[in-house]
Design brief:
By secondary structure, the chain is of the alpha+beta class. 44% of the residues lie in helices and 26% in strands. 9% of the residues are buried.
Length: 123
């Protein structure tokens, strides 16, 4: 005959709590993952500008146009042009993107991330 004390496990409330916590982790992952995927696409676009020899790095308009085309091709339409800044000093052009992403989470809460990335072009 088995003793009741030896058979222990989670109750229904315990299982519901674990499932709820796991569900929140999954929802958080589904909200955060697209933000980081977009950020890595923006980084790839900016790094492709560095390697493209046909772009005139002395012209902000040419660089802005090239970035806009590449962002459009990668279906990134949420980052406005004013988030990109261009500086030129001693034959080094620096392109910097600085933007923030906010996504709704649960009820009145949101998940946000702030991304900054720079590349240097030496031409």
């Amino acid at each position: 005959m088995m003793n009741k004390k030896s058979q222990q496990g989670l109750t229904t409330i315990g299982w519901l709590l674990i499932i709820g916590i796991f569900g929140m982790i999954v929802v958080t992952g589904f909200k955060i993952l697209p933000m980081y995927m977009e950020y890595y696409q923006v980084r790839t676009v900016m790094e492709s500008i560095v390697t493209d020899e046909e772009i005139n790095v002395r012209s902000k308009r040419d660089m802005s146009k090239a970035i806009s085309k590449r962002l459009y091709i990668n279906q990134i339409r949420d980052i406005p042009k004013d988030k990109f800044s261009f500086t030129r000093e001693n034959d080094i052009t620096t392109i910097t993107v600085d933007y923030e992403v906010r996504k709704p989470y649960v009820a009145d809460l949101f998940i946000g991330a702030h991304f900054v990335y720079s590349v240097e072009i030496k031409r």
